[in-house]
Amino acid sequence: MRKHFLLLLIVTAVCFTAKGQSARGVKIGYIDMEYILQNVPDYTEAKNQLEQKAQKWKQEVELKKNEVTKLKDALKTERVLLTKELIAEREEEIVFQETALLDYQQKRFGPTGDLSTQKTVLTQPIQDQVFNAVQDIAEAKKYDFIFDKTSDLTMLFSAKRYDISDQVIRAITRSSKRQQLSKKQLKEEDAKEAKEDMVDESPALQERQKKIDDRKAAREKLVADRKAAQEAKRAEMLAAREAKKNGTTVPVKEVASKATDSTSTTTSNKKTTVPATETAAATSDSTATTTTTVDKRTKTAEERAKIIADRKKAAEEKRQKILADREAAKKEKEDKKKETKPQD
Predict the structure, then answer these.
(1) Is 163 helix (H, G, I), strand (E, B) or coil?
(2) What are the boundaries of the region Disordered (predicted)?
(3) Residues 153 and 227 placed together within one structural domain of the fold
(4) Per the domain annotation, does 87 fall within a domain?
């Protein structure tokens, strides 16, 4: 009933405001407090610390439950051996431990427990920042009403274009960043904020900004591809020059691998929104060209090396033949001298 009354009151106020401000329409916006809290760094860090405490408390509760269970199991096993007085004493101990367990659970996780209290302490400063940011945005941009989507007020429908949660997050983040900026940086930040605010106010500007970002991403991708092709070509030339200098051949796979690595490294350094298939195609074409050129140069180097080896082999055979002829002539001469020598 209270929600309906509040909603009726707001609608009535809107109607009267619309009549009084016929020159311009009523400007309404809303925020999503849960979304804002999830995207504020200070709250996220504090929430993680609180979750660690809650996890520790849960472990303590489990330990106490296990102790109570052990007492019950022991009593069930030893009941036939105990007297009535000992049984009553054991049962009283179990009741005491169960009561202590419930008290501990209420202390940590109850409606007014430590977890609820620390959550309130944690969220209150952020909520104050959100409230101040909403006030500033409402005054600067002439909002008539700003609602909280997560409050008791039921919103059956809320168009996204009226959501100013991102503006609130930026306002909170800006205030924390400004303390560390110089005057020049503050001036640049003001210009950037003004541009962001203009984009928030106009869907047409949002679309235009998106197109600008897409064109910028495409240019960066084109520059990355050109640089990758140049790196691949340079690697190919260096490999061929080194092979020519050493009189050796460079494996095709090695050169192609270097070209591919260079292409992938250069492309990965650029964050673009261009489809990955285009980058893969450019890399494949560059690698194929490099491989074909290296194949030709490798084949030429192999043929040249073969010719040199054949020439060396022919020269060696000719030299061996000359030495053999000389040795045969010398031996023939010595044999003739022996034949013509007078007999004693």
Answers:
(1) strand
(2) 179-228, 240-344
(3) no
(4) yes
